[in-house]
Amino acid sequence: MFERLFRLSEHGTTVRTEVLAGVTTFLTMAYIVLVNPAILHDAGLPGAAVAAATCLAAGVGCLLMGLLANYPIALAPGMGLNAYFTYTVVKQMGVPWQTALGCVFISGAVFLVLTVAGVRQLIVKAIPRPLFASVAAGVGLFIAFIGLKSAGIVATSPATAVTLGDLHSPTALLALISLVVTAALLTWRVKGAILIGILAASVAGWALGLAHWAPSPYSLTEMTATAFQLDLGGALGLGGKSFTLGLLEILFVFLFVDLFDNVGTLVAVTKKANLVAEDGSIPRLNQVLTADSIATMVGALAGTSTVVSYIESASGVAEGGRTGLTAVVAGLLFLATLFVAPWVQAIPAAATAPALILVGAMMMAPLAQVDWEDPGVAIPAFLTLVTIPLTFSIANGLAFGITAFAALKLLRGKAGREDILLFVLAALFVARFAYLAVT
Q: At what angle do helices 394-411 and 129-150 cross, to 10 degrees?
């Protein structure tokens, strides 16, 4: 059955490898079950309900990705977009959270229409292939930085933006030791090295009291507080409710950021897993984007913000995950977490941080494919590479890279008819930056 569904032998993998990869992916991104409710609670949504909605949306998204597209990519409510939902849409703009959920649902529906119409696929194809490698590496730097920061190895500084953290703290020390042990296991080619590292560090963290965890009473019925509470009428301006430019802006941001964050993640993970076709295209792209769109709509119905592809999926790929079985395993674990959502915080940050750092290191390999001797390629690639981690946004990295690539191509007189969509994308990015500058 597994062979028929996921073509394991064709991808050079086994059920055992895929299961290990799925568990690893789940553990590296399980923090979202705690972080997402904490952020959306500030918007007025009940925390327990959002925890359940987060598990449901992630579980359904992962299952759709695995069964429809056969990719080892996990989905969950996206970081960044949940903060935009809470602090900009609800708190700053004064939009009720029910209406904001309606906007999320509509953006998912529009995504689905664009996917069926082939527009999203055209956008992916318009991205210059030399940028694929720099996106993958830039995302690697991004998740490595997240790992370093969550471990306390890197800290914020008012003078220099970032600085060395307190390496004497128990969290940093445990993360460093786990980093060395996991790196050694990877060097020795031990199967499940990253998963072993996470579990070993978790046990040590529990023994040292680093998992600060106080679960509160919780039941699946909590989800009824947010499930089907979205206000589509308010989002569309129906029934006498005004549809303002502000709501149009919200829909645009949900649509725009989700699209390019997903494209960046898709490019990075497929590149890491060697799943990109010989011509540079991504097989089964339509199914990937369909899974993403439906997952966002399910998330909005359940009571959470936009669902996106997670770059932490690269940790599962590093463990050998190559098919949708990896995503299915992660999805089943998220659905199982529905029953024990508050317990996920038992996994300390010191346990998952080393995995993110090491996966980030292994994602540097595609940079060898960039022609660094050609300024027309090297400059956009470099801007993409550094902008992703320094702005904490895959979408911003793509924006800088695509805009620079288009501008240099135009200035060198090498633009052709086949580049029309590339220039349209660059113009949209310029308009986005101009809009951000005046708002």
A: 150
